[in-house]
Structures are given as C-alpha cells and as structure tokens.
## 1
Amino acid sequence: MSDPEILSVLRPDGTADPAHDPGLSDPEMLSLYRHMVLLRAFDEKAVALQRSGRIGFFVPSTGQEACSIGAGHAVCEGDWIFPAYRDHGVGLMRGYPLAAMVGQILGNTSDATRGRQMPNHWCDRAIHLVSVSSPVATQLPHAVGAAYAAKLRGERIAVLTTFGDGGTSTGDFHAAMNFTGVFRLPVVFFCENNRYAISVPVEHQTATGTLAEKARAYGLPGVRVDGNDVLAIRKAVGDAMDRARAGEGGTLIEALTYRMGPHSTSDDPTVYRSDEEVSAWREKDPIRRFAAFLKGRAVLADPAAEEASARETVRKAVETAESAPAVPLSSMFEDVYSEIPWHLAEQRDSLLSGKG
Amino acid sequence: MAEVTLIKAINDALATEMTRDPSVCVLGEDVGLDGGVFRATEGLLKRFGPGRVVDTPLNEVGIVGMSIGMAMNGLRPVAEIEFSDFIYPAFDQIVSEMSKMRYRSAGQFTAAVVLRAPSGGGVRGGHYHSQSPEAYYIHTAGLVVVMPSTPADAKGLLSSAIRGEDPVIFLEPKALYRTVKGEVPQGEYLVPLGVGRIVRPGDDLTLIAWGAMVPVAEKAAAAAASEGVGVEIIDPRTLWPLDIEMIESSVRRTGRAVVLHEAPRTCGFGAEISALIQERCFLHLKAPVGRVTGFDTPFPYALEKSYLPDPERTLRAIRASMAF
C-alpha cells in the first residue's frame, strides 16, 4: 500500500495483503473473476449493439468492474440495492440474470419492465434490486426510506446504494447522508469516484481533498478504498454492510477508480481526457490485476478461455432476446395507476382504434 | 356523530388508520412533539411512538425521498409538508420518482405515499404560504390529486388515500381548517377516491369548485337563487382522476358551466375541465364555459382579498353565462 489511507489488498507482486484480505474461498474468488469478465463482455457487446443501431443507448462500466462485482458480493439475501445506472454489475453479481439485462436494453417483450425505460435502467423485485433513475443520486433518499422500514420492523438487513463522484454534489446526497446519520440507519453509501461526471472532473465537484471525509459532517465513518482491487472492495463494503446489519449505522465508502470508456455511448471522452491518462489507468485494469493474482494461486488456468466463454454466453443471450416480439401498444397505458382510470382507457381505445 | 373542524377530521383519519394498520407512519418536519404547524398530527406521537411518528430533519427532498423508500419496503407513509409552497425543492422526487415508480418497474415496485400539504390562500400567508399548485400534479402521470372541502370528506378521502395503491397528493385548504365544522362519522370511514359530490342541486347552471372555493360557490349560488337561477354545485373532491361522469351528466342537463378555482388561470385545472366539457357536451352548451380564478400573478400579500375569487366575481360569471 503506497497510501496508508487507501485500503488495498492486491499487491503489485501478485499476492494479497493478509492484513485486509477478506478471506474468500477459491471458488468464491473465481466467481468474482468470472462475473467481472462477464460484465465486461456484456458491456462490449452492448456498446457494439448501440454502434450498429440495434439499441439506442448504453452506459458501459469498463474499468469499474471491481467496484460493481466486489460490492455486489457483499450483499446478502434480504438486503436492498439502490444502484446507479453504471452499476449493473452489482445486480449481475446478486443473480440478476444476464438474459434479463439483455432484454432490458432491447426493450421488447423479453424485458420484464416492458420497454418502459432506456437501457441501463433495470430492476428486479425478487432480489430487491430497485429501479434505476437517470437523474444522479435520486435513489439515495429511497435507500434511506427502505432502511427505515427495515429498522422499524426489526429486520437485520443492510441497504447498499451506489453513485458516482458527481452524485456527492447533489441535494439528494446531503439529504440521504443526513437522514441516515440522524436516524442511525443501515445504509452503505458506495461512491465510485471515477474522476469524471461526464466531462467535469472531480475537482469541480468538491473543494474537499477526499469524498470520504464528507461522512464526518453527517456523523458517519468515511472509508477510502482502491477501486480497481476487487478484494479490497469486497472487504470495505462487506465490513460496512456487516456494521449496518449489526445496528451500528451507515458508512460512506469512496472507491478510487477510473471509467476507461465514455460516460455513455453519446459521449466523446477524448474531448476532456488525454490518451496518456487513459493509458495509465489501463495498466491498472481490475480484471487483469485479479487474473494475475488468481493465476498465482492456481485458481485460474486460462483467462483468454474465460473471456471467450463469456463473450459466447452474451452472444447467445442477445440472440435469444432479440427474437422476442415488440411490446404491445396497449401496455403503454398500464401500470400508470394501480387500475386504469377512465382517461387512460379512453386514450388507449382511441389509439388502438386508429382514431387517436 | 360529532361536529368537528376539518383539521380535527384529518387528525381523526390519521389516528384511525394508524390504529387499524401498523404499517401506517407519519413523517415530516414538526409532526411529532409539536403536532405539525397546524396541529394535524397532534397527539399521534404519544399514541404511536417516535418510530411511527417521525420528526425529520428539515429537508423536503429527504422527507419525500425517504417516504418513497419506506413505501417500497412495505410501509404506508403519510408525509406532511408544512405548506404546499415548500414542496418545490422535492418536485423531482414527486414527478419523476414517486409518480413513476410503478410504471418504470412495470409494477414490481410501487410508491404509495400520501403527501399531505396545506394549500391555498385566504389566511394572510403571503406568497410562500398561499399558492395553489394542484395543476402541476394533475399534469403528472401517475399521481392522484385530492382536495377535500368538508370535515367528513377530509376524513373519508384521507383514509381512502392511505389505503390506496397509488401515490396521492392530498392538498388541504388551510383557509377551511378551522372555519368549517361538520359532522364526521366516528371510527373507520371511507369516501371513495374519484367520486365527486353534488354540494347543491340546480337546473340552470353547473358550477364546479373545490377546496376553499366551495363555500364561495355556495354563497354565489344562494345569491343566484334569489335572482331565480338554479345553480348546481359540484365538488370533484378527487381532482384527478376527475369524476367526469358527474360533471358531464350535470352540464348536459343545465347546458351551462362555470369553473371556480383560486389557482392562477392559465393552464389551471379550470382550463382542462373547460376543454373536457367542450369535447363532451358541445351540442348541449347554451353558453361558453366560464372561468373564475386567481390571476396570473404571484400571490399578493396585501391584495389577497382581491386576488381570491369571491361570491361577487362568481355571481358575475353566472350572470354572464345566463345572459349569453
């Protein structure tokens, strides 16, 4: 560890720091690795689908796989997840099926949410993975409310909410952190500081030296962690979730990472980032770093074969989902209210009869 | 039945529903020890404890956002915002999050929050304590918008809102909190959402009014009666979804309609009602649909009596319709 303030486990020599090693079994670590590889394969495929006009938009997480997968592994059954749009890996790690992710980005009848939102806005009630918002950090106060409900009922669960460095600038962040501190709620705020909110650098989001130190103002502990080190993320988020479940309140975690690709498929990062900067971070690729560690422990034999297998899994999922029919027109008017009121029934009937 | 004020009826509804269902929680600034700025939640803290009657930090985004999460995780939150004018910092949480949670998740998650807020003018509250924001919420897909005008309706509608599966903006006409009294059934009492009330029957003209404008409408109708004009007053009670059948049936019979509200005129709810009547009752109309409203200005403190519609302005609109 070069910086004692930043929690890190995977050393440059390919070994793990025993002081902070979360102590996962070999199969667990292989699972983390495979999910990271699958997440990247999915992201690459989704970007390709957007570039070829088969989907309208995508938000890739390339470079941040350690954050999503490491945090997702720290979530237990019964916990709740209020993710940001770049954190589909948390859901993937928790068992949100790849087929559902593919269906959602296509927005046809293979999408459980019936094509209601643009890509990256998934949810799954079965695993408490809550619907994603486009405005930044609006989900944070919702996490507070879910945690309050659980605490009122005496449930020993934790709530994980994820967001980027830009999210710390919002009023919703302040409200959620403050409420969590005041009510001593089991919420883990996982901030992935990937250096940019679209084009605006983190230095324009805050005048504080770190984002983690903001926790002190709300009476919460603040933790900094190496965001490209999946074991360090697992350790930091796991400890915070354990604290929350034990009734000891919330935590703010700042993970230092880097978005290697664009903010979204609508973004051109070459306008605001140098090739040198991107290359330097590419050297810290979280997947390669973890692969080197696993190879050293003889847990992983052939990274290239793992990557090829993940790409094939994604290809098949896309092939299956693309054959699903379009969502029916009448579905546009459903789920606005618990029952369809007269004005929506009239508008639906008018549209379906060709008079609308 | 006991005769009580509108604010007391709201307190009664909250206490009754909290007794019936342990998942009902009240939250907001001041709602605990102080019982809210208008005392709507008075006594609830003592009865139900600080877990279910929650004095929150002063932050509307937090109050609304937390309510959404509470509802998603099995509670029935009834959030109070001190004045409807103070909701705007939480506008995004209402119009993009609370109202859309069911739709965007295809029914997997819902946010059946009841958001209560004192609304409207007439209490010398000035700009920040007098606005009538109902049109913003009616314009937002997914929200139910309610405004009672009697104590019994206040209790029955609020109870239905708390039991319902949709998010509700429950606007309370603060001018009526302690100026109207009425008999309110004791115990559990429900008034269904989406059903209007005929305040006064009449054959010559339909006058549609809600909240604090209902007593104004009644005075204008009494004056019109002395001139030989029979005014039928309809209080929709639930502003959206509107009881269009009641309005349509009345206007087809009377052939004349005037809408009365205190919110500003342009894009106010009166414009929508006027358009609906025009679309559905055109061949029955003997005169254009009239509107009596607040003006398209910020709410004025010193001139509030002139800003708010009164029986005289309403009577002039009735006469104009009759003379058309």
## 2
Amino acid sequence: MSKKSVAYGKFVRFFWNKPTVALNLLTLGLKLENTRRKVVATTRNDFSSWVDFAALSIVASAFSGEEVALVNLFFPSEIMAGFALKSVSAEGLSGMLAAMHLEDFALARAESIGVSKNTCSFHRAGLGLNLLNMMKNVRAVAVTNMLCDGNVPIFRTIASLYGLKLIVLDVPRNLDEFNVDYVSQQLEQAVYELENQLNRRFDWKKFEEQMKIESEIFEALRELYPKLCEKPIKMHLYQHVNLLYTIHVRPDFHLLKAVRALERDLKAETSDDAKRILWMHLSPYYDNVLNEIFSKDSPHTVVASELCWDWLDWRIDVRRGFKSIAEKLLLNPLLNDARKRAEFAVKLAKDFRVNGVIHFNQFGCKQSSGSIELIKGVFDELKIPFLSLDGDCVDHTSSSSEQFKTRVQAFLEMIE
Amino acid sequence: MIVYNCPLVPFEFFHALRIPFKRIEPISIEFQKLHPNVCSFCRSAVCSVKPTDVLVWTDSCDSMRRAYDFLSQNVSFYLHIPVKNDELAVLSLSRDLKRLWEFLKTVFNSEVPLSELERVHRWFIEKSIHLERLIEKDLNEAKTIFEELSNQEWVGSVARKGKSVLLLGSWANSKLVEIVEKAGGFALNATCSGPYSLIFEAEPARDIFESIARRILNKRLPCGRFASTRELKMLIERFRPEAIVLHTAKFCDFYHFDERLLRELKIPFVTIENDFTNALEQARTRIEALLEDTKDRPRVSVKAFHFVGIDSGSTSTKIVVVNNRGDILFEQVCRTGADPKESAKRLMIQAMKHLKFDPQESFVVATGYGRDAIDFAHARVTELTCHAVGVKHLYPDVRTIIDVGGQDSKVMRIEEGKIVDFVMNDKCAAGTGRFLEIVSSILETPLQIMGKESLKAKTQLSISSVCAVFAESEIICLRSKGYSKQEILWAAHNAIARRLVTMYERVKGRPPVVLTGGVALNEGLKRALEELLKVEIIVPKNPVTTGALGAALMGLQQKL
Ligand code: SF4
C-alpha cells in the first residue's frame, strides 16, 4: 500500500516474463519488508506496528516454503494450527499483489480460463496467483460459505490445481444448538479428512495452544474495548485491514503482542479532535487516495472497522473445542439478515461515537453491498451520515482515485 | 400462493398441501434497492414477488440472501441449503425441512397427514425418473411431466431438428431457446429452468424429511453453488451435443467456471452473459456464429458474376465485390446512420453503377449487426465467420484475429481457416474504439493522429482506468499533474491493449496475429499489442472491410 511497494512491484514487473526470477524477487521483497516490519515492531513496540508485522508475516509464509493451508477469510484457522499448517487467505494474497500493483497478471490469468470480470477481484486474483504457480507449499485448501459463497467455486478450482480434496465448511445462517452441532461435526470431519490427506495426526495440544492465545487476545480486546471507544488510537486506514486480516486468518502470538502493546498505547496521553469514522467492509489495499485522506494524522480518522470487531462477543471455551469454534462462526453478526448486521454496525458507531460511516462496496461483492440501501436507511434514521462508496479493493485500474476523492471529500464536508 | 426462488425446494410439500405455487421470474423492471453488484436475474426476479405471497426462500446464493433482506413484510420461510452433500448436510437439511412442513401447515391451516406427503413424494420420484428417460425419447411427454411437477412453463425445444445445442448455466428463458432454434439448432435446456432441475437420485432414508433432503441434495446435475464438481461430462456423453451455450447471469459467481471444463472437453461453446435487460441481441450473433458451418449451407444456383458482401456495422457499413476468382473489384465504406438498410442499398447502387452489373447478376451476403435489415441479401452470415473467411483469404496462415470495432471487439482463434474459439466484448467501452473516442475528445486530439501521437511518449505512465466513466476525471487529473498528452495517450492505448490481451489469452491465441476493424490503423494500439504479446501484428491494407470481403467470399463458396 505504500509508494515503496509500488516501486518494488514495478521492478518485479520488469522480470515478469521470467517467472522464476519474478517469484524469487517477490519472495525476497516480502522477506526484507517482513524483517523491516519486525524491527519496527520490536523497537516501537506499539499496537499498529505489531499488527502490520503480523499481517505481512501471514502472507509471506505463502512464499517462504512453509507448509500452508490456503483458506478464505472466515475459515477457522484453529483447525490448521492443529496440523501445524500456516493459514494464508486468498484475499490477503490478492491484497499483497495489489499493494505492488501486480494484480493485473493474476486477474488476467483467471480471466483467461473464463472467470468473469464481474466477480470479486479478491477471488479472481487469488485464483490467478495459483494458476500462475506462485504458491510454494500448499498442503490443504479449505473454504467456508459463511459470508460469501462466491468463494466456493474459486476454492474448488484452486484445490483441483493441486489435486487436493477441498475441505468445505457449510455454515447455516443462525445460531442454535443444532447448528452448533452441525458445524462442529463438520470440523471433526474436516480433521479426519486432513489427517488422511496429510498423513499425520491432528495435534490437540497445538490446537489448544492456539485457542488459548485467541482466548487471551479476545479477553484483552474486550477489556480494552471501552477505553478504546473512549479514546481510539490513531491508525491508518490500511492498518485496520491488517488488523481484520490478522484477527480472521491467523490470530497468533504477534497479535497477542500487539494487543498487549495496545494496553500501553491507551495509557499514553493523546489529544483527540479528529472526526471519527466507522468503516464497513474492506478498503482498497493498493496505494490510493483513501489512505491519504484517512491517515493516522489526518483530521478524519477511521476509528473502527466493522470486520475487526465481528467476533468480539465470542467467549472462547477451550474445553468445548470444536463446539466453541462453531459458536464463533455462528454468532458472527454478518452471517444472517442485513438488519442484524446493521444493528451491529450501529452498536459500533455508538460505542465509538463516530461522526460518520463509510461502507465500501467492493465490486462484485453481493453479500456486503447487496442490501446496502437497507443499512443506509438504518443510519439515516439515526441521523448518522452514511456514505456508500463503490470501488475495487484489488484491481487498482477499475476505480479512479479521483472518484473516491470527490465523493469522500464531499461527505467529509457534510459532517464538518 | 407459495412463491419460491430456486428449484432446490421441496415441491412435494406444495403438491401435498394443494397450494398453488410458482417460481419467481425476471420481469422487465429491476429492483433498484438491490445494489448493482447483485446478480441480474435476482434483481429483476424479486420484482415478481407480491406482498401477499407466502415465500419459501432458499439461501442459494449471496444475491438471494440479500434479496431476502427486503422481503420481510411477506410471510416467509428461509431455508438453508447446504453447499455440500454428505450425511451431516442431509441431517441438517432434513431438520429444516421438517420445520418448513410445520410452518406451511400452520400458515395454510392444513391437516394433511404425513402419509399423504409420503405418497406425493413417491409419486414425485417416479415422475422424475420417468422425466429423465423421456428427455431422450419424447420431449412432448417430458414437457407435460415437467410442467406438472414444477408448475413452470417448459423452456426448451420440443422437436428435434437441426443441431443439438445444450444450454448450460443459470436460468434461461424461451427467448434464448428461440434464438437457438432460429440459428438452426434445437435447445436442450440443462439450466435451472429446465428438466434437470427436477432430476435427482433417490436414496433410502429413515423418514420422509430425510428422503426429501436426499433428493434435493442428490441433484443429478448439481448447480454451480455446490462444492462438488459439476457433472457436465455425464450430460455431454449422454446427449452428445454439437454445441453448447453457456448462459450466465451477469454477476452470478457460479457458472462461468464451467468454461474451463468445456475447453478441456473440446466442445464448441459460447458463453453468454445475460443482464436480463437488453434484448439478447449480442447473444444472437454469438449463437449464430457458433452454429454456422459453411459446409451445411444449401448451395444456391445463380448466374452471378459479382459476389457482394455487405457488412452493416453499428457505425459504418462496408461493401466488397469480388469476381468468381475471388479478386476484389470494388470496396467502399459509409456511415451506417439511422437506417442501416438505406446505407446498404446506397452502397449496392454505387457498386452496380461502378461495375455495371444488374442485381440478377449478383449474389449478396449480408453480415454485421444490421444484416437482418438488408432485405435484398441472398444470405446472412455472422460477422465472426465472415471476418475469419476474409482474413484467411488475405493471410492464409492466420491463427488469431483481433478485431477492434467502434462498439465491440472480438478475438478469434482460427485453425485451418475455421474459427475454433472466440470471445467478444460488447458490454463496456473498455477495450473498444469507443474508449479511444472518449479519450480523443477529452484530450482534443483527432482520432486519426492519436495513435501516432501516443508513440511519442517518453515515459511509461500507467493509467489506472479503462472504464469510460472513470476515464474522464482520471485524465483530467493526470493533465493537471503535468503529464503530457502523449504520455496519457500511450497509457490509454496500453489500457485497451491489456484488455485485448486477456481476451487473446482466453482463446489461447497464437501468431500469426492479424488486427482488423476500425481501430486497426491506429499505430499506438498496434505497438502496445505487439509489446504486450511479444509478437508481430499484421494489419491488412483495408482492415475495416475484411468482414465484407469474407461475406462476398462466402457467396462465392456457395456458387454451384
Ligand atoms: S469482498 Fe465480498 S465477494 Fe469478495 S471475498 Fe470478500 S465477501 Fe467475498
């Protein structure tokens, strides 16, 4: 998302017709950047630096040769932890390419097998990257239809590229005891399938360790939440994406470090006169004008992003094992009716006392933007200004920064 | 009235309760509250729901889920259909079906006993088995059963004549069938408006709800939403279609994945993206091109010496006259204007005057979007076939043709003079001459010189948008940042070239590549394509008339 990534991307682009060189350069670039972020995180030891590092290390593992599981954003990575597989999500990989302005290769590759230009670019680029043979050590491919069912055919295709059986988790739309059983039994089934596929046992200890880390993370976040609402810490827009990505795909000890740092950050005095914005759905990951408008230091900051808090109510019970994970998936407020989602967003808006809400409609994403009119209606009634912004998070050529700028600035003038 | 949204519903319930039921259907308006990202079928079909309808709504896809958000005023049941088919999924669905049964009984105040439901279920399965057999034997009979089971009108041909065409993909209507039939095929509908939506594999079960759940999940041809692979091979082996029309709804995420499989199976097919608003006009051209086979065309006896090809395009009309050796005698281009027939006639008169021949001594083949309007033509052929024939005549080794017109662009792969694969872009301005026109007017650079100008660019600037809507603000911004016209022009040409390259890859294009169409003379586009594709591009002397030339030659081929 920075100018640096774009410049590096340009350099890699130069070698694109020599795939091995390009891939090596990409790997090297990620490694260097990851090391840099680690150094920054250790020295600064603050929340956002740790989050930045955590997010990149997830993506980097896809290129490092570690054993990875390719998943979508909502697939419970705890299962993969039990097999010592690093979860990497296709959405994150697409975002990484976009940050370097290299997504066009992946998008074009997916389109060349017939994938329509009208599908979500996270999907297209994620598939394209695999078609381009860029992933190193994919040992499992897993998907859930939880929020978005466009994922299913994409992951079906990805799995077929590796000759792997696709692990599928079917998540019904509401939380009740029966559905908790249904989902947790599927998780057992998934473990069984993975044991056969990987030819190794599921390691309960590793699984429980992962659950414990998450438990600590969520407990701490819950505790800090009221303070954070009161005095949100300053973050760039893209850092919210890093945060939500880490929370969903691999909430590990890096994130735990971040959360511990958050406690300290919150104690530090900061003056706060910026206008507060709640962000809904995702935001473009490439270098773009939105990141400038909503930077750490601008007079308008994004104080919360919907997808960072969708699991706040999840009380982890390590003893309940898979049932606890099933509960996590089923209690997600985005799973069901749009009204439920709106209720949740309103809660965030009120808790964080925001001055306005921006919903980003990712091109081709039906589940998030389909009934946006309804969500807008709810905010309109509460007289909370709401902007529905169309664009593309991955394909930097399909929406124009000028369009973003005009709309967002007009909106910000409105809430002045 | 019970209204349902997708045939993954328990039809047995409706029959057993004896309540009238029907499926939602696209009507000519769109539900504006749903974001344009939502699938076009859904956006339109939701409008057919009335406030008094009792809904049985499945969460079959994201679009249907979002549509349901707006239907809360209706009495309704929201049914989760698992994306997989295993014992756990069956169990989950059968529990939900049981709840749905109770719900419907309460809503309609009905006391129908389970035994009646069981009877109806057995009847349904028997009929469905029968239906499957009849598809090959007696389409009329199949139609009757289908309509009885689903309360839907049969969509598909009933008489077998011409080439067999399998329709795959999402909900198709009779308009599509008509197009196929007009193009000389008979349509076997394997989309979800056809009999395959009612063909299942029955399995023993513990109770009636489980049995229905198994029936639903054991759909013989699982739709694109399911995690399992689509059983297209089975269908193709069974029907051995000569061609396939893959019909997808715009913004449906599922069916275009079939393309990969179809390419592997090496069956001629065409993908159509239906937005349910326009008249499927472009679909028609594609389907006709798919079914066109010059060898099958009836030979016409004419004492012609002049073979005339007229290509009536959306912006310009072209004429080419060849003699019976195929030598070009006359070529002319004019604007199509509001009346395609008139402009064609004018050109014809000009040709007759110039070459001094009578209409009886000529054989006219019309092509292009306006081909049907040209009433004096003896035959009509799509511009795709004509382009291939015309270019092949000029460059016998050609393997790929990239044709960029004012309103559309197409890439065709040719083997031995015949099209083996093609893709078209006519939905958006990106990738067509239209985009260049827009850029030309924003930058105030005449179209004729903009290609040449672009080659003067000194630095590589990547334009972020090829969407005509966004281009304007983008370009103005670049101008204000101080980029030169030339740099912006080069970036714009590159942007179009990139779109074309994607199409090229889709058909697995290979050299020699010939560039035709109104935009072919633009050196900027040619250079950009050459750089991206790393092949040399051939441009005919008259790149706009290759379609008309092909049409004229098609006439010649038909001479006795
Ligand atoms: S942006 Fe929407 S469509 Fe794309 S992956 Fe996310 S949920 Fe799915």
